[in-house]
Amino acid sequence: MALRSMRKARECWNFIRALHQGPDAAPVPQKDAVKRIFSGIQPTGIPHLGNYLGAIESWDPTILRQSILDMTAALLACGINPEKSILFQQSQVSEHTQLSWILTCMVRLPRLQHLHQWKAKTAKEKHNGTVGLLTYPVLQAADILLYKSTHVPVGEDQVQHMELVQDLAQSFNKKYGEFFPVPKSILTSMKKVKSLRDPSAKMSKSDPDKLATVRITDSPEEIVQKFRKAMTDFTSEVTYEPASRGGVSNLVAIHAAVAGLPVEEVVRRSAGMDTARYKLVVADAVIEKFAPIKSEIEKLKMNKDHLEKVLQVGSARAKELAYPVCQEVKKLVGFL
Ligand SMILES: Nc1ncnc2c1ncn2[C@@H]1O[C@H](COP(=O)(O)OC(=O)[C@@H](N)Cc2c[nH]c3ccccc23)[C@@H](O)[C@H]1O
């Protein structure tokens, strides 16, 4: 079982999506011919705006088990279709940790110690981070490479981890012959949704300031309250100037993304409005976007058997893809 020994017990939650081919097709994507898209999210809470638009503090196992099902419900409600994508629980596919060990032997300690997330998280934990936390990005590399993924949709905070994945794929190929595609990150225009309370920081599930993060299951009242309290500046006009007006620009970017409009159009439509009123307009747009997702989550959560079945089927399909790749890797390195 891949238990992610980060500050909280984190099992990683992954879904993979094979485009232009069914999961039964050849698992080795040809250069530029086939895209295989892979991504992941930790089931440590309800996804927030950042996760949506753009992922062991002695966690009780019962809570973790429940969070896994809640995250499944949330991902399905957000539109992940298990007929098209393979939605699965990483810890059900043991090949992830097997490949991770092989990759761990190919990376030098300082490479991991210099990663921003390790530095930031371990600083918060008074430099008492576990080895699991340190090697977590290698497990993430195994998640991606195990499916010979070509594209990985992530937020900006994962770019450095993606560089490690690319380096590991290249080093492996150099040593054992061309085997892994070098996967590319897919960054959307919302690659970094900022905290509503501090536009210099990213919106994060673990932010201690509850007003900083909008969860997709928040009630309309909570959403209004969070946007009302969002940090802006002393200029009342609505403009998009991310470098000098981070707060209001974050609101404009969120508004444009949830309304499916270009930023310029959103700014044009808010001409003459002051930021106080504009915050309520953005809150309304977010409420409208999340309403159907929220009700779908509630519906799905009532059917635990269905959620468990989706995961069971997904994990079996993922295993079918992972097993032969892992066997090939073992042959290449001499384990078999
Ligand atoms: N404020 C934000 N703005 C924009 N995007 C954001 C914001 N906050 C989070 N994200 C993105 O959401 C995804 C899931 O976040 P996690 O922290 O669970 O994400 C994580 O902790 C990963 N280690 C999970 C993982 C494990 N294996 C993988 C393989 C491929 C891709 C991802 C993974 C991520 O894409 C993250 O970049």
UniProtKB/TrEMBL annotation:
Organism: Bos indicus x Bos taurus (Hybrid cattle)
Phylogenetic lineage: Eukaryota, Metazoa, Chordata, Craniata, Vertebrata
Gene Ontology BP term (one): mitochondrial tryptophanyl-tRNA aminoacylation
Family assignment from sequence similarity: Belongs to the class-I aminoacyl-tRNA synthetase family.
ATP-binding recorded as keyword: yes
GO MF annotations, alphabetized: ATP binding; tryptophan-tRNA ligase activity
Name this polypeptide is given: tryptophan--tRNA ligase
GO cellular component, one term: mitochondrial matrix
Subcellular location: Mitochondrion
Annotated keywords: Aminoacyl-tRNA synthetase, ATP-binding, Ligase, Nucleotide-binding, Protein biosynthesis
Enzyme class: ligase
Protein EC: 6.1.1.2
Superkingdom assignment: Eukaryota
